[in-house]
Amino acid sequence: MIVEFGHYALVLAFALSLVQSVVPLWGALARDDRLMAVAAPVSVTTFIMVLLSFAVLTNAYLTADFSVLNVLENSHSAKPLVYKFTGVWGNHEGSMLLWVLILVFFGALVGFFGGNLPKDLRAATLAVQGWISAGFILFLLATSNPFARVANPPLEGADLNPILQDIGLAIHPPLLYVGYVGFSITFSFAVAALILGRTDAAWARWVRPWTLLAWSFLTLGIAMGSYWAYYELGWGGWWFWDPVENASLMPWLAGTALLHSAIVMERREALKIWTILLAIFTFSLSLLGTFLVRSGVLTSVHAFATDPTRGVFILALLCFFIGGSLALYAWRAPALKQGGLFAPISREGALVLNNLFLTSACAAVFVGTLYPLFLDAVTGEKISVGAPFFNLTFGPLMVPLLIAVPFGPVLSWKRGDLLAASQRLYAAFGLAILMTVFTFWLWGMDMVLAPLGVGLAVWVMAGAVAEILTRVKILEIGPSRAFSRLIGLPGSAWGTSMAHFGVGVTVLGIVTASAFQEERIATVRPGDVVELSGYQLTFDGAAPRRGPNFTEEVGHFTIRQGGIFVAELDPSKRVYTARQMPTTEAAIHTTGFSQLYLSLGESRGDGAVDVRVYFKPLITLIWIGCVIMALGGAVSIADRRLRVGAPKPARKRKSAAPAPAE
Amino acid sequence: MIRSLFTSFFLCLCLLASPAMAVAPDEILDDPALEARARVLSAELRCMVCQNQSIDDSDAPLAKDLRVLVRERLVAGDSDAQVIDYLVSRYGEFVLLKPRFAWNTLALWAAGPLALVAGLFAIILALRKRRAQSAQAADSPVAGLSEEEERRLKALLEDNG
Asked: By residue range, what is the domain housing residue B73?
């Protein structure tokens, strides 16, 4: 009965979304306040309905109600409680419900907090948001109903995929979905602006916090997924250029470009048309990701790809939203007026360069991901496009971008002076050269690219620091007064510097972990010692152990450095009983920013076992850098000046609240 | 990423053998130079039954066979290119994670650089156009009228005329 109630709540949410998609838009076009006022309460009610249905599904999981097909297929009574909870979104139907929940949550946020938006903009934005929710709730109801029952429920469920029985499942998908779905708001804002035929600096000001929010979460989501794969999959890789990873990277690249072009639009009223197009692209790429993952077009063996009708349905949604918004764009965008002029060498120019490289990189990833599919469809030839291709095409596009990063924030708006900007970066440049030379000295001349990569990373990091120091004019006014200026710096300045610093940190981690990694592969018997990077790993033997829903073979290693005890590591191989599925549990020891990574291989009888040990220098910087980027985003959102409704800076500028265009 | 975990799950299903790590100790060649070449080559070859994994990363029995095959060819004195050719002749282009530059992969390889060049052109054109427009607007006495205003002006003029 409760389950049917959840199903019913979802149906109600669908009906409400339909109301939300039609009535407020009608109101906005007919300038009817009462019709427009429908948007906010309906969006909040829709959220409550989806929340109810999500709660019902969660309850079915927690009580292990195997009469629900979804629970039966993805849960087990012996599963630890936390995985019963996270298992709700460890499958297609549940994760789609979470996706929709976050979607309507964002709609409700706009409805709830959007009081200071112009009425028609809020109504139109919520209407567009309503179309998206209606489309995806219908998708759930029609093709992926999580509340379907089974007539004769068995006593035990099929258990959750063991790889997903990890704390990563609790964190990664929600973060990623907040990122993906968060861009729906910028999309709705963009489409609303096109419908109303009006964009201005105020529009960019409203859109920017949403973009920042979505971008920060997407950054965290991708980083978390990368770390999860790194420790769970057991071969020590952290990025595989897998189509589904690319599906999350593409909106990230487009979103990063959007973040930067929105700044130009907000400050200088330039790049309006481009910013709107980017907002459409970013969410379109999110939708494309959803399509690729859930339709099964990319992979014949994929857990989410069981039913071709789902693929067709999502494809239809995809065509409707992407095609519709682009058609609307083609029709309405030429009517939008462009503002602010700028010289090529200027802050705007640098941000345009940023957009150029990010979108080109995004295009390279897009084509690389879809090309095998395309070629197969057209000529029937089968080719693979994998990591070596992406490294070769994506990397070179990132290098000039990274070189340019420190210049952007120190150039002035409108017309910049490259020489003056370079002078502010002398110290950063010197430091980068120094670190490059130092790395050469440390590792010898046989590796050329890696020291240059280190230099590039240091350049980006030092550039971010230099930017802050330039802003407080430390050279002109001395450290003590500079310090008081430092505290007074706006959040957006700190946010920019932090995010750029984070990029440098991530690049440093990528370079060192890929270039200077060390590896040993060996067969060990109890008592054997493996030497790696100054560590001695003694194998003390392996023993079986029982977990709640798995059995495992645990190897015990003692790590010493120069004879001194450092740590004990217990890598294991598990077999999950319900699915009889083996997994490898790597053991990781973190020293400083580096990690020692240990994973077990095949047992060879008489106590001997294969083992693979890596030393990955500074690898944690990859994810720490991402966290710093996301924090930068958060600090930037917290900037009072960018908060809608906060007093405007006392600059001579037209009031940011737009009068209706009459 | 969650989906790559999903896919790897299916990958494991298709193995069903006990989980081994990729390169096993008994596969490693005695000659470190040859072994290093084998590792580089393996990273560019696809495990054909897997989901976007190189034979260097994969635990699948097929990947093991291919790793051993690559090493056998290297020991027999093949060059890297010969090993690649041999594998392509046996398994087709699908085995290469980095497609060869050919007419049917031209668009693939050119996409990134082409996007960059096209974007650069678009920017230059847009800048020029904007500058010409603003110069024109500065000359024009009706600068600052909105479209709506211009339309009304035109309507008024037409009415009078």
From this structure: 2-102
